[in-house]
Write a structure and sequence with these properties.
mainly alpha, 78% helix, homodimer, Four Helix Bundle (Hemerythrin (Met), subunit A)
């Protein structure tokens, strides 16, 4: 499993001419690290001296978001390996026989199904990264100011995970013939990207303000 | 060493209440992965079928950049661990005695030196990430179009490594009293960020165009 490789081995695997692990797995990893950094900021805030100055209702939100981020990181970690097999269905479908018209039709359908399944993985990654960005807000505003740079890096990473995963949704979408499905996913991609960009900008604004 | 940890262990270390590894080490890692992804695109281009369509002078540049990116990734991998000890000098200086005026002066000088040394590591990381972004251009324009999403993710990561590292330069800079030094580094930070943003935007434009 990819997640059992050490950093040097993982980087070597990425570098190799094997297309997996590629941008999809990497997007999930990077989003996960971004979430973990925000958890660190939580650990340097919740229950620490600085926590006394955080209003009670914010404390509640911060602690709830901390747990949600932990879950989100776990989901992203799973996607690291999932993404590297997401395309297997498409590859398998391409190898189906195409001697008769019936076989051709079945093969074409299987390929189309394969693409739809393949893009579900990065789409899930992108949604999780947007979720992370939204959960990070309370740490940007009320987290330990000594760790504000870590909130900043966490923001950059959750956003990179989002846009990176959406690249992979879009490239798979190009092979899909089902117009309705394509339009629906295109709209989702645009919404996720627009929301993600806006949330990232807001977060970075707070980070730069608190960084002084 | 951090680079010997597997992905799950590394994510756990980031999450912990220990401030290292934090955003600094993570920025170097992310930049390194971005470079490795671009090397993968190189491996899926150079010597492959698609390579026949690449003009000769571009081939030369692509092969030279491929090697430079390999070096750059190696440098960034080293920074992952270096960054987590970069602040040790500051911590050590803070523990120096401060009983006499002389001791106070020596301690204060040592703290200042510590901060200067501490920011050198993320500054080097940021410069290396800008270098990466510039080296990626030939892969965005002439790399295998089937791997264009990987160029996109590589771009996002090299940029995140750059801006993330600069956060860490800036936070250390705030403690430095030497006006001339501070002004000089502030100018460098602004130049790196401006160049990095512009290069990232150009690269992403090409990626989205080729993604279609």
């Amino acid at each position: 499993m990819l997640v059992e490789k050490n950093l040097i081995e993982f980087i070597d695997e990425v570098k190799s001419s094997n297309p997996t692990p590629g941008g999809g797995s990497v997007s999930a990893l990077v989003g996960g690290i971004g979430g973990a950094l925000t958890n660190m900021v939580g650990n340097l805030t919740i229950g620490n001296k600085v926590y006394d100055q955080v209003p009670e209702n914010v404390k509640e939100k911060m602690e709830a978001n901390f747990k949600e981020i932990e879950n989100s990181v776990e989901k992203l970690v799973k996607i690291i390996d999932e993404d590297s097999t997401a395309f297997d269905g498409v590859m398998k479908a391409f190898k189906l026989p195409k001697n008769t018209d019936e076989e051709k039709k079945a093969r074409s359908q299987a390929i189309q199904e394969g693409y739809k399944e393949a893009l579900e993985v990065p789409l899930r990654c992108a949604k999780e990264c947007l979720n992370l960005l939204e959960l990070q807000e309370v740490f940007a505003t009320h987290g330990n100011v000594n760790a504000i740079t870590d909130v900043g890096v966490g923001t950059l990473l959750a956003y990179s995970g989002l846009e990176g995963a959406l690249f992979n949704v879009t490239i798979n979408l190009k092979s899909i013939k089902d117009e309705t499905f394509r339009k629906e996913i295109e709209d989702t991609v645009n919404t996720l990207l627009t929301k993600g960009k806006a949330t990232k900008e807001e977060l970075l604004k707070v980070v730069y303000e608190r960084l002084g």
